[in-house]
Every structure is written in C-alpha cells, then in structure tokens.
Amino acid sequence: MSYPNSAQINVVDADEDSGKDFGQWIYGRNSISSRMSQSSPRDSLGSPSQLSPNGYFEHKKTKKSKRTAWYMKKTTFVLGVLVAFFFLVNLSMLRRVQEPGRGNINIKPLKANATTVFIREELQKLGRGKKPQKTIYARLLAKAAHALAEGESKTEPKDLWVEPYTRASSWIPCSHTRNWEPSEGTSGFIMVTANGGINQQRVAVCNAVAIARMLNATLVLPRFMFSSVWRDASQFGDIYQEDYFINYLKPDIRIIKELPMELQSLDLEAIGSMVTDTDIMKEAKPSFYMKYILPILHLNRVVHFVGFGNRLASDPVPHKLQKLRCRCNFHALRFVPKIQEAGALLIQRMRQNDTGLGHLDHYLVGPFAQTKVKGQKTAAAKKSRYLALHLRFEIDMVAHSLCEFGGGEVEKRELEAYREIHFPALVELEKMRKFPSPTELRSEGFCPLMPEETVLMLAGLGFNRRTHIYLAGAHIYGGISRLAALTTLFPNLVTKENLLSSSEIDPFRNFSSQSAALDFIACTAADVFAMTDSGSQFSSLVAGYRIYYGGGKTPTIRPNKRRLADIFVKNNTIEWKVFETRVRKAVRQNKRVFSRPVGRSVYRYPRCKDCMCYNE
Questions:
Q1: Domain extent for 230
Q2: How far apart are CA 362 and CA 550, in angstroms?
Q3: pTM (two decimals)
Q4: Comparing 62 with 475, which gets the higher pLDDT?
C-alpha cells in the first residue's frame, strides 16, 4: 500500500552481550576452581612428595582433579552454546517483528512518527525507561511482538473480519417508510442553535426535527454554535446538503432556511422565547415540551433553543416520532459534495484503489462511490480490507476520567490544571465528596483504554501485523510518543493527514467538524470498526450507521473495559495463549445481536421496530 510522502522504517538488530558475559563469568569461576584442585604439597625440589606415605594417593587425586576440571570446562562450553542459541532465537523473533520481508519497510506512518523505529529500544523505553508514563505493560507488549511475528505464517481467526452471528443480517432498514400526513407547521417557528462538535450537533438536529413535528411547528434550518473547544465556525450548509435535507423531510415537517422578516427583529430573550439547556432537563419527555414549550409558541410564535443538546428522551416516545428521528439520522443528513469527495479518496486509498463497492459507500459518499468493475472477483475485497480505530484518548477524556495513566506527579499536575480550567464543577465536586481511587476506577472499567491496552487488545484478537489501520482523530494525549507501541507493532497505521495530499486536506484543516466528517466516513465504511470507549458519541453514531446499512456484514468491536481491566492487571503472570483466549471471549460477548434496550439511543441501537424491520 503506497502513500505520498512515505517514510522508511529502518531495522536495527538487537545487541545481546549478556550471554557472553554470563559464559565468561562461569568460565572464570571454573578456572579458579581447577587451579585450586591441581595444587599439591611440594618438597624442596619442587616435585610431589615421595617420602609421604600418602604420596601415591595424592598423585591419583591430582589426576582426578584434572579430569574434573576438563569436565567442567566442557560443561561450561555446552552451557555457553545453549545460552547463545537462546539469544539467537530471540534475536530472530525480533527481526521477524521488525521486517515482514527483507530490507526496509516503505510505509507512511503518522507524520510526527516518520523516523527510525527500533523495536527493542522502544519496548525498553516503554517498560523500563525513566518515564514510566509510557507503559505499564512491557511484558505483555513483548509477548505481543512475538505473537505478531509468529502470526505472519498463520491464518487469522475465522470470525475476525465477519459478523459472527447470522441473525445480524435479518435486520433491514425501514425507517424511510411513512404513514402519516405532512405537518403544516402552523403552531409557530422553532430555531435551534446546537452546541458541541459534529456528533452532538447531529443528535441535536434529529431531536429538533422530532420536536418540530410533535409541536406542529415549522423548523428553521438549524445553526451551529461556535465552541471555544472545537473552534469551528462551520454551519449546517458547510457540512450537510441543505436542499436535500429540506426536501427529504418535506413529507414530515415544514423546514425553512430563515425566520420570516417580521419575526427577525424580536428580542427573543426579552419576550421569554429563548430556551437554554439549563431550562430543560436531560432526556426530557415529550410531555415536557407539550406542557412548557407549546404555550410559548402559541404566545410568541417562535422559540429559540440555544445550546440544544441531548434534551429529548429515548423513551417513552411515540413510534412515529421515533421513526422520524431514525429517518433524519440515517436518510436526511447527507454530507456536502466536498466532504463526500474527500471521504471517497480516503476509502479508495485504504482499499488500495480497489474498485469494489463497499456496503455503505453509496450512503456515505453518494456519486463519488467507486463502481464495481464488470467481471471483478469478490475475492479481491479480501486483499484490500482495513480496520478503522477510534482511539478515544484525548486530554479532555483523560482528565475527566480521574484515572491515572502511569505518568506520575507530572501527569497528575497537568491533568489537575486542565480540570481547573475546563471542568471546574468536577473540581468542586472532588472537594465535597470522596471519589473512588484510580485503581478502583480502572478495575470497574471507567478509565479510557490507553494506546498500549488497545494494541494488546488488537494483537490478542489475532489481527495480523500487516493489517492496514485507519486511526480516527489522532489528537492523542501524550502525542506521538504515546502511540509508540501501536505504531511499532502495527506499522501500517495511518490517518487522513497521511492519506490525503496537502492540497486535498487543506480545505478541512481549520474546521474540526468537517474534518471529523471525514473520519466518520472512513470509519463507517471500514471492514471492521474498533472503538475503545463505548460511551463515545462518535463511536456510537458510527456503530449505529454500520448496523443500519451494513446488512450484518460490518462487524464492530466494542470492548468491555471492566473485563479487559481484569485481564490487563495480570500483566506479570498471564501467558499469551490465555490472554488471547480471554480477550477474544470478552470481545465476542459484546458482538451479540439484540434489539435496542429500553431507554437507549436509536442512533446507536437502531435494531428496533422504530428504525429497522426483522425478517425471520
């Protein structure tokens, strides 16, 4: 797989001198013992005493000592050969990890990591260096390196790249069907300014559509709030196709691009028509809107939801409204051509320009999807498959978790300072009550997976070292050095910045939401998607989209962090085969096919009668 601006990873052999020193130490001790055994009383002439009655026996003893010394020298030599053989075997294993073939590996790793990588030195740095924050899993990482080297000649587990349960293919999309009359939107106008990043904004838009229908109101095209965290001024039309959105939902609700002129001059805050997130509880039920919001609409003709986030409950919601939410998320929101085109390039390059059409390509990139070449064999897809990974290890996630990641006092002070600025409420809460210790939080699965834990999970599942991995985001706490274990053991790991040229990525550099849309496309279209935090809204939306359109052929890896924590804690004792078995069992259990649990998001769990139909 070739990419522009590729770098070379040079291979350096491990220097193993400890075996020689050990052999010389034994040899020295044996030599001293031999000289002491050969010494005997001498007379004044310097010969063994012949006057002593025991002279004959002393002479025999001297010959026996010589034979003993010769035997010990031979034993030492054999032991030295065995020690040398042991280190040669280990050296060979490390070489196999470093170079799948002969010579240097021409790949394009993360830009900031485009330097020479020494596996042995990296593992030593990770496990025993002066900076313990790098890792706490040196032993398991070494075993993973050996397993990946051995795995090059082995086949991957059968269910690694496929959905293990055939029942998954029985669910098919059906939220596009309608059985009601269009809403006239006569109650008034609803304005929405959604906060957060693209994921929160997407959920807010779909919830606003459902509320507009519920209140028989006209929806003004949603706007996005500028965030000091995301620092993206993108609006709805910069990310999604406005006209398509309006026309697709026309049979459901009335949508206009701007508020009527006669209402634009109103001071909405003064007349009580501005409603913020603090005015609405999380997961508010439909009855709340009917009781408190509808009267405002009737009185002032307009309501403006500011900072509108997750403010509509998943249950209880009428069936048709729930279906509308699904219809909005999976059908009405289509990315603008600029994003579709760049997203299509990511997919094509991750598939090494294979022209086969993926299960979700058409829904994600529309007319830019590759068409299948006539007569092309489906087996070609096996050569171009890739894994997408969302590593949720940004500083906000790390700081808010209250966990520790091996960085000692330096890390502790850094995260405390970040919480003081960005999570002041959490800091105050820490002063008033006692939270569980970082060790307890980790054992309960409340800590985000570290990159080291993620690479161990992937290796334990059986992914080959040559696996092509797309990394979403890449704003990892600790920078590229924190990714050393991941990029060392899986060198074919890239981001959108690696796959796209400067001219192709430049239009998205200063727009985090548009950039995140590219990650959404690449992750959703992947043959396998792996998340490290099941609570992440990005991972939830990607997983839901893959369920809805995947036809039971797009597996998603959802780790049970509590189970994994119980496995990782045995780093110093667990054997690799046992580790593999336990990791695969823990992940497979989370692949079970089940209907949406009550109270859970339809965007994440679309397998329900409101979104999908089940064909037995």
A1: 189-332
A2: 12
A3: 0.79
A4: 475
